[in-house]
Structure formats: C-alpha cells, structure tokens
Amino acid sequence: MTDVLIIGGSDAGISAALRAKELEPTVNVTVVVADSFPNYSICGLQFYLSGEVSDWHYQAHRTVEEITHEGIHCLLDHTAQTINPAQKSVSVVNREGQLKRLT
Ligand SMILES: Cc1cc2nc3c(=O)[nH]c(=O)nc-3n(C[C@H](O)[C@H](O)[C@H](O)COP(=O)(O)OP(=O)(O)OC[C@H]3O[C@@H](n4cnc5c(N)ncnc54)[C@H](O)[C@@H]3O)c2cc1C
Asked: Which residue's CA lies nearest to atom 10 of ligand 1?
C-alpha cells in the first residue's frame, strides 16, 4: 500500500489529499499541518473582520472530523522541518518541541 505525506493542510494540501483518496481509496494519506485549522479559508478573513461572519472558526471549508471521515489522517500542530528524499522521510516538530521522524 502506498503512503502519501502532504505538508500543509490548507486549500492546496487538503485538495491534494482528497484527490489522492479519490484516485486510490486504499492509499494512506497523512497531512502535516503547522496549525490547528486544516482547510481554513484565509481568503475569507475579511468577512470575519467586517463582522459578516461572527465566528472565524466557521470559515474552514471542512472540519477535522469531515476530513478524517474521508480517511485522511491530519497531524495537526506539527511543523515539517526537513525532507529527506533519499530516505523518504520527513522530520516534524510539535508545539512542545518534540521531534518525530515520519517515514
Ligand atoms: C485576506 C486574503 C484574501 C485572499 N483572497 C484571495 C482570492 O480572492 N482569490 C484567490 O485566488 N486567492 C486569495 N488569497 C490567496 C489564497 O488564500 C492563497 O493562495 C491560498 O490560501 C493558498 O493556499 P495553500 O493551501 O497553497 O497555502 P496556505 O493557505 O498558505 O496554507 C499553508 C498551509 O501549510 C501549512 N504549513 C506551512 N508551513 C508548514 C510546515 N513547515 N509544516 C507543516 N505545515 C506547514 C500551514 O499551516 C497551512 O495549513 C487570499 C489571501 C488572503 C490572506
């Protein structure tokens, strides 16, 4: 089974993850997201600032639960630090400074 690791979980990252699952439902897809808000619509920030949207949380296109329901694993609050193509590994660090190597 193939593993796909995507760094970044805003529009581009989640689109890529959904498309990978669409093309091959058995693929293991993990999205590494530096923040806690995947698929967040930063484009709509002005609607929150203007008051048209009362709660900025509503501006996410999908919730974590909805993304997880698609079979996509979200590794939130983890920042990718290094990519090692030869070893097919990525090192990530969480908010507590703990390092992890994803292979
Ligand atoms: C106010 C505003 C209005 C906009 N309006 C428009 C518009 O009308 N039309 C338009 O086409 N575009 C608009 N844009 C631009 C649009 O938002 C961006 O082009 C789009 O968000 C890019 O999406 P992205 O997924 O590539 O990256 P981003 O939305 O920048 O997301 C980056 C993702 O990567 C994660 N990340 C970054 N570094 C790491 C790392 N080292 N490890 C792990 N995760 C990481 C972040 O946490 C985030 O999840 C607007 C932007 C803003 C700010």
From this structure: 43
